[in-house]
# Entry
Amino acid sequence: MSNAFVPSEVFFTKGVGKHKRKLQSFEEALRDAGIAGFNLVRVSSIYPPGCKIVSRAKGLTKLRPGQIVFCIMADSQTDEPNRLACAGIGLALPAEKSKHGYIAEHHGYGMRQSVCADYVEDMAATMLATTQGITLEPDKAYNERKEIYQAQGLVVKTRAIVQTAEGDKAGLWTTVVAAAVFVQTAE
# Structure
């Protein structure tokens, strides 16, 4: 399977956009995130083994305008003044580098940035842990479960990128996006 498309790099980005039209507010958020110039294809939640995390600036240099780009994206929109919109991406990496990790996305309302970050990290870590045979107690707080994962050597690293924004006071559409953007480098 040497011709299989497996991303070799990923970068994380986020943005906010406001406009009187919903679609244009989404476009503005993509521009703020630096990814408006690509044909974005949403994919599910697997972080490929051996994939390297790079900075947004470095990842963007490897993409061309109009390119089809795979990403995991969360977005949320509101035209209600002061309504808090959130979009977050969480990553959980396994201790064993030859295994895949998980990326989780969440979009919604009313979650502050730190709460959304914990939520998406927890989802990604939980998906990873359950594939490795850990029985979970859903009533335990994420920090308690995180200690269990780390004690068993299963989840090595988690991270999150979250964008929140309050709905525009004048009623403009406000959009938030967060994304994990995959890059395939030539081998």
In short: The chain has one domain: 9-183. The mean pLDDT is 91. The helical segments are 22-33, 56-61, 113-131, 142-151. The beta strands are 9-19, 39-42, 46-47, 52-53, 68-78, 84-94, 101-109, 155-166, 173-183.
